Every structure is written in structure tokens, then in C-alpha cells.
């Protein structure tokens, strides 16, 4: 628990009731890491150097029970819509280069909501990963006023290519900026903070591709971990050092964004949220860590879906103790922001997430809820239920119940000890598992054979 939180628990740091009225429309800054594991940050005991994230956790509050989907595209879809991604056919797989689907164009996004509420500037900088073959799926048609970055996942950090073609864009145009993608994303975010602050509240969604594979790092970051000849090391050790270097570069980028917000005098009226889109990809990235948590990316164990997450919002300090332990996650962002900005319109489609603003304000100490993780898994503050066969990669022979009170790291199946809990949570899992998506989910490999990337990943189809 960070020092700020300990102070608040002692009863210091409350704000007068008028504070929220004076700061009705804060800037919204969401920074998303890609495949950053629970055990990859200093504030969780990692040896990886993350001083900027550690400082942010100390100034703000760690969201200890923040959940995501176990893979990238579903988390991004839920983040922007407030809805579980299996409702629109993005559930068990990411959107790969050879697929033509994307986020259903009938879904309202967080950027749409903020545009309706007077946020003139709404930028996505970095990785999109929600459709790349049709203009209807393009960020500039999903409520964003500016897009800088890449449409696909897993681009090359230096060439910015995917499948042999340049995937780097500035709004609708191909962008040939040279440099390491993590630093280019940071530079663009910092640049627009200075411009946007002059024109009212703004929304900045910074979606880093780091530390996702392919593993590649700059020399200056590699030297943080090894001064000798890297080529002389075994391959696994080289990869481990490279991964650490990538995380440290990401950390530095977050620090530069925070610094820019502070120097321009807008940090204290900014709701700043940092988290990872899923857990550590330990199978392909030596050095990636889930810490003490069980599991990794692709699985509904905590190591795959419980993200390292930090919140900073000066106006909500008195709510930090509650929000620290609140079960919350990616689908709660839209409904929380909706209440925060005072939007009274009925959602275009019902949210699955909830607003946690009452906890942030300190009006409630906690909100009881069940959070669906996908593939037969449901979690709440006391238990997690995972249905056998829900996620075939987990190879469960029986339904599994985690009792966090006695088993915080999910080692023992408590299903026989709590049959009524199992029955109740199984019903919730079944309700969401059996949703018929408005757009059928497409198998990951469909279209891969014989695929050739379009020139410069230009989007021309409506």
C-alpha cells in the first residue's frame, strides 16, 4: 500500500464538498500498456526499473483489484464501450492483420460520449487494434478527433511495419516519422497536451505497444541492465534484458506525460488512469512476470486478467482508500466518466460496467458486484468462479472456485466448500457466456492463408 493511501486511511486529505462542483469536467487521460505483467513494476516488487510508475502510484492510488480481458482487442473494445466484448464478437481472440472485422460501428465509444459533452479534443495515440480494413472502423470515425500511431498489434518498434508494410499513421495519412515507437508515442502525447489545454477539457488515450513482442529495445535502455557484450549472452538472457529495457522505456514515457501535465498546470484537474490490457505474456517474453499471481496472458487466472493499475485524480483523494480495494475494471471506465461529466442521455446500448464514481468521491466505501471476465469466469471481492471447459487453454477438469480470503493466489479449488456460491456464480457465467453477439465472432486464423498486407495499411473501403 502506498504512502499516500496510508495517510488517507489515517483521515487526512479530505476535500470540501464544493471541490467536485468546481472541477466538473476534468481532463481524461488513459494510458494503456500492452502485455505488462503484474510483476513487471517496481511497486509490485519487480527488479525492473519503473521509477515513474512507482512515483505515480505513491502520489495517486494503486487499483489493487482492476480487471481486464485476458487479451488485447477485447480489453480495448470494453474500455471504449463499457460493454463486455462478447456482445459484439470480440471475445476469445485479437483482431489479426488478415481479418476484416472490427468494433461494431453501432457501438457508442467513450470518445463519442465526450464529444457530446463538450470535449473538443479527443486523441488516440498509439495502438488501435479494433479494425483496420474499413473506414467505419477507423479511429477518426469512432469519435476521436486525432489519431497518431498504428492500426495493428505487434508492429516492429523501429520500422513500424506489420506483415512487411508500414503501419504508422497521422490521422488519415501515412506517417514516416523515424524512431522507436514508444518514444514517438510519448512525444506526440506531450505535444498535444500543450495544445489541448488551451481549448477546454480534453481526452487523451495513449495506447503504448510496449512491452508486447517483437522484443526490441534501444541501446540506452539495454545499458540500464547490462554493460557488456549482449551478443555473448544466451538467447533467453538477451530476451530477458531486452524486455526489461522495453518496460523501462515505457515507464519513462509515462513519466514524461505526467511531467507535461504538471508543467502545464493541468495535472490536478486530470483524471489519470494507467493500466495494462492483460497479464504477462510469459510464453514469448522471458522476463515478463505475474509476480505471485497465478497464470498469464490468455487465461482467466489473476495473472492474466488482474492488471497493474494506477489512478490519480486530485479531486478524489478522499475516495482513494475505497477505490484501492474496489473490484473494478475495463468496462467501468465509460459509465464512470459518463456520470462524472454529467451526461444524462440514455446509453445507446446498455452498459455492463458500473460507475465507481461514488467510491471515488468517498460517498461509498465499496460497491458489491460480480465482474465477468469472459469464458466462464466471474470474480467478486471474495470469490472467483471459473467454469471447466470455458477457456480450453486452462485445462480445468472441474469447475474451480477461488476463496480469496484463504487462498489469495488461487492455488486450491474451494468449490466443494461453498456449493451455494458456485451455483450462484455459475448462473452469472452462463448468462454472459450464452450471449449471442450482434456480429458473429470470426476464428483467429480465418483469412490468414495467402494474405498480403495492403500498401502502407491504407484504409480505402467504406
Keywords:
single chain, 462 residues, alpha/beta, 9-stranded mixed sheet, 4-stranded antiparallel sheet, globular
Give an overview in words.
- The chain is an alpha/beta fold and 462 residues long.
- 27% of the residues lie in helices and 14% in strands.
- α3 packs across α8 and α6 (181-196) packs parallel to α8.
- The longest helix is centred in the middle third of the chain and has 29 residues, at 235-263.
- The protein is globular, with a radius of gyration of 21 Å.
- It starts with a helix and ends in a 29-residue tail after the last helix.
- The relative contact order is 0.19.
Question: What is this entry, summarized?
Answer:
The chain has 462 residues and is of the alpha/beta class. The chain contains 13 helices and 17 strands. The protein is globular, with a radius of gyration of 21 Å.
Amino acid at each position: 500500500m502506498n504512502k499516500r493511501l496510508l495517510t488517507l486511511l489515517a483521515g487526512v486529505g479530505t476535500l470540501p464538498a464544493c471541490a467536485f462542483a468546481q472541477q466538473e469536467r476534468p481532463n481524461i487521460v488513459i494510458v494503456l500498456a500492452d502485455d505488462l505483467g503484474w510483476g513487471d513494476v517496481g511497486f509490485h516488487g519487480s527488479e525492473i526499473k519503473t521509477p515513474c510508475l512507482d512515483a505515480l502510484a505513491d502520489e495517486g492510488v494503486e487499483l489493487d483489484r482492476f480487471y481486464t480481458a485476458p487479451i488485447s482487442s477485447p480489453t480495448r473494445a470494453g474500455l471504449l464501450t463499457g460493454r463486455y466484448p462478447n456482445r459484439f464478437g470480440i471475445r476469445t481472440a485479437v483482431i489479426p492483420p488478415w481479418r476484416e472485422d472490427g468494433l461494431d460501428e453501432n457501438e457508442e465509444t467513450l470518445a463519442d460520449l465526450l464529444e457530446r459533452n463538450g470535449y473538443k479534443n479527443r486523441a488516440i495515440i498509439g495502438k488501435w487494434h479494433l479494425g483496420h480494413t474499413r473506414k467505419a472502423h477507423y479511429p477518426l470515425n469512432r469519435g476521436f478527433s486525432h489519431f497518431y500511431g498504428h492500426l495493428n498489434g505487434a508492429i516492429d518498434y523501429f520500422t513500424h511495419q506489420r506483415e512487411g508494410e508500414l503501419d504508422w499513421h497521422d490521422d488519415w495519412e501515412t506517417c514516416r516519422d523515424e524512431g522507436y515507437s514508444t518514444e514517438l508515442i510519448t512525444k506526440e502525447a506531450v505535444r498535444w497536451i500543450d495544445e489541448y489545454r488551451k481549448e477546454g477539457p480534453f481526452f487523451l488515450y495513449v495506447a503504448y505497444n510496449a512491452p508486447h513482442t517483437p522484443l526490441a529495445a534501444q541501446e540506452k535502455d539495454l545499458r540500464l541492465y547490462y554493460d557488456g557484450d549482449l551478443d555473448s549472452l544466451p538467447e533467453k538472457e538477451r530476451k530477458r534484458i531486452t524486455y526489461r529495457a522495453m518496460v523501462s522505456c515505457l515507464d519513462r514515457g509515462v513519466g514524461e506525460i505526467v511531467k507535461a501535465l504538471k508543467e502545464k498546470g493541468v495535472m490536478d484537474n486530470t483524471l489519470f488512469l494507467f493500466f495494462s490490457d492483460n497479464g504477462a505474456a510469459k510464453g514469448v517474453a522471458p522476463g515478463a512476470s505475474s509476480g505471485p499471481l497465478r497464470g498469464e496472458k490468455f487465461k482467466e487466472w489473476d495473472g492474466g486478467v488482474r492488471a497493474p493499475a494506477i489512478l490519480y485524480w486530485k479531486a478524489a483523494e478522499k475516495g482513494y482508500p475505497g477505490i484501492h480495494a474496489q473490484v473494478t475494471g475495463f468496462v467501468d471506465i465509460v459509465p464512470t466518466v459518463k456520470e462524472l461529466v454529467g451526461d444524462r442521455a440514455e446509453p445507446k446500448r446498455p452498459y455492463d460496467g458500473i460507475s465507481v464514481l461514488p467510491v471515488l468521491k468517498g460517498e461509498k466505501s465499496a460497491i458489491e458486484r460480480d465482474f465477468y471476465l469472459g469464458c466462464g469466469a466471474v470474480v467478486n471481492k471474495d470469490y472467483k468462479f471459473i467454469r471447466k471447459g470455458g477457456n480450453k487453454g486452462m485445462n480445468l477438469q472441474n469447475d474451480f472456485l477461488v476463496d480469496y480470503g484463504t487462498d489469495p493466489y488461487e492455488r486450491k479449488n474451494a468449490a466443494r466448500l461453498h456449493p451455494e456460491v458456485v451455483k450462484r456464480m455459475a448462473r452469472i457465467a452462463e448468462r454472459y457466456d450464452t450471449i449471442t453477439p450482434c456480429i458473429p465472432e470470426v476464428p483467429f486464423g480465418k483469412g490468414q492463408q495467402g494474405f498480403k498486407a495492403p500498401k502502407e495499411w491504407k484504409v480505402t473501403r467504406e
